[in-house]
Amino acid sequence: MKGPEIIKVSLQVGSLLLANGAETCRVEESIERICKACGVKEVHVFAVLSTIIVTIVMEDDYPITQTSRIHKRNIELHKVECLNNLSRRICYETMSYEQIMAEVHRIDAFPSYHKVLIFFCYGLVASLFSLFFGGSLLNASVAFCAGLLVKLGLNAMSQLSVNSFFTAIIGGIIASITPLISSSFGLPIDKDTIIIGAIMTLVPGLAITNAIRDIIAGDFLSGITRGIEAILIGLGIAIGVAVSLSLFKFLGGV
Amino acid sequence: MILTFLYAFFASLAFAITFNIRKKRLLFSAFGGALGWLIYVAFQGIIVSDVLRYFISTIGISLYAEILARVSKSPTTIYLAVALIPLVPGGGVYYTMLHFLNGDLNLGVSTGLHTLAIAGALSMGIFVVSSTVSILRKIMLSIKKRRKTNEKNKPSQNIST
To answer: Can you give the C-alpha Rg of chain A in angstroms?
Structure first.
């Protein structure tokens, strides 16, 4: 492979990894691994949450640098696993540029779960966690609706490409306003367990895990950025719930 | 208790689906979530401090995730991120906020600190296991390398003698 092809392939794999929820250290490692396997003399990679910069130096050639900006991130861990395996495969067997690119496109085009199933799972997470925290079946069914509505709100927010902090606030508002409204209609429900169950759908589990793993790998910049993201999301959820609770108190509801 | 175990399992399963994890990995990652809760409950009679119990169950699930990741040759995150969810103190965040909203500052601050301590215990648990595993991996790799170079050197010595 020639230099420009190597950098294109490795950057494509790296940016897909980052966009689908891999740790930053994994992105840097994979790019380095692919470049080394293709016979590059020197590789310098720098990746943060939104950007990857790669410079490669070939034997008797000019160094090449390319950057990639990642705008949209979503969580598809299956793709991360496939890309990770691909980057290892490149090391063991010699693959041509076309072969690797075809494989990358195949992984990228891999369909995620059906939308209806994802909605159902959000509802399920909310209702099961409300049961988990000691709610009754009636509470769980209200929490199911709350989970569905939260996902609806999250989808709308991601379509408007709103930042994650504000998304968490909106999510918190929706999660708490659903049980508040249904209890003002006279349903005998315990709003605490429902709200806790519904806000569990918003928990930034992957951000926490990735933050810690990045810090362990010595990548403090990305680790702290992700950690702050997780803290802000938690704060946003609390603010959202507080807004709707105090609004209801003000209106003389619950 | 069995019921809460099942709730944790299926909640983790649903969460794993929203993370787009596939096939066999789905069940294993969901079991991790239930395992964390099981460890937490198992130590209930022995250890009084619940922060310490959270720490121990995080160590348990991180070990589980690291071992499974080596066995199935997939990223640790797949198992760890899902298994962590049932342990995340969502209730703590909610009650902290509720106490502040009711104007009860003392209770709010103490609940908030408690929630923070749990979050710290979770991250410390992952920290301890993951860094130990990565150190072990590096030691194993260096041993392997040394063995390889030894094998390479031996035949050449034979030829020279």
So the answer is: 22
CA distance A118 to chain B (A): 6
Q: Across residues A12-37, what is the average pLDDT?
A: 90
Distance CA A140, CA A127 (A): 4
CB A47 within 8 A of CB A28: yes
Which residues in chain B come in under a pLDDT of 70?
154-161
For A54, phi then psi, to 5°, come to: -125, 130
User: Mind listing the pLDDT tens digit for each residue in A11-20?
Assistant: 999 999 999 9
Mean model confidence pLDDT for chain B = 87
Cβ contacts of B127 on chain A, cutoff 8 Å: 212, 215-216
User: pLDDT, tens digit, for every residue of A216-248?
Assistant: 888 899 999 999 999 999 999 999 999 998 888
Distance of alpha carbon A70 from its chain centroid, rounded?
Answer: 13
Question: Do residues A176 and A240 touch, judged by C-beta distance below 8 A?
Answer: yes
**DSSP 3-state of A135:** coil
Residue type present at position B115: T
Query: In which order are the strands placed within the sheet that holds A64-69?
Result: A42-47, A51-57, A64-69
Which residue of B14, B22, B88 is in closest CB contact with A205? B88
Of A217, A182, A177, A213, which Cα lies nearest the Cα of A195?
A177
Beta-carbon contacts of residue B62 (< 8 Å; ≥ 6 apart): B80, B125, B126, B128, B129, B130
Which pLDDT belongs to residue B161? 43
| Residue A148 · residue A217 · CB < 8 Å | no
Residue B88 CB neighbour total at 10 angstroms: 21
Distance CA A33, CA A10 (A): 9
Q: Give backbone dihedrals phi and psi of B51, rounded to 5 degrees, phi first.
A: -65, -40
Contact B126/A at CB under 8 A: yes
**Predicted-assembly ipTM surpassing the 0.90 threshold:** no
Chain centroid to Cα A45, Å, comes to 22
The rounded distance, in Å, linking the Cα atoms of A176 and A237 is 10
Q: A54: helix, coil or strand?
A: strand
Q: Answer yes or no: do B101 and A245 touch at CB < 8 A.
A: yes
The answer to whether the Cβ–Cβ distance between A205 and B81 falls below 8 Å is yes
Q: What pLDDT score does B160 carry?
A: 46
